[in-house]
Amino acid sequence: MSINVKPLGDHILVEPLEGETTTSVGIILPETAREKPQKGTVLAVGPGRRDDEGKRVPMDVSVNDRILFARYSGTEIKLGDRELLILRDADVLAVLES
User: Fold this and answer.
1) What is the pLDDT of residues 33-53, one digit of tens each?
2) Which one of 12, 17, 46, 57 is separated from 33 by 20 to 30 angstroms, measured CA to CA?
3) pLDDT in tens, 18-31
4) Domains in the chain: how many in total?
């Protein structure tokens, strides 16, 4: 499925990675008991914010980066059957390297 969303400014479109569905001892967690995901894959990146002089500040992440973001940050959107997040660049805590 093609993504037709272009983030503006310092925003990032992220597909969250699913959290754990079972505990370490095998108990299946209902969706209401699962923690919100904090990891995701970057699908699209805005051009960056402007500084006081009007120059663009480059983004710290790029498309296909796996990132760690603040737990309750961003705005949830639904595109087709996919649940996505739009985050600000400042909400990204780290880029996960493999």
Assistant:
1) 555 668 999 999 999 999 999
2) 12
3) 765 666 677 776 65
4) 1
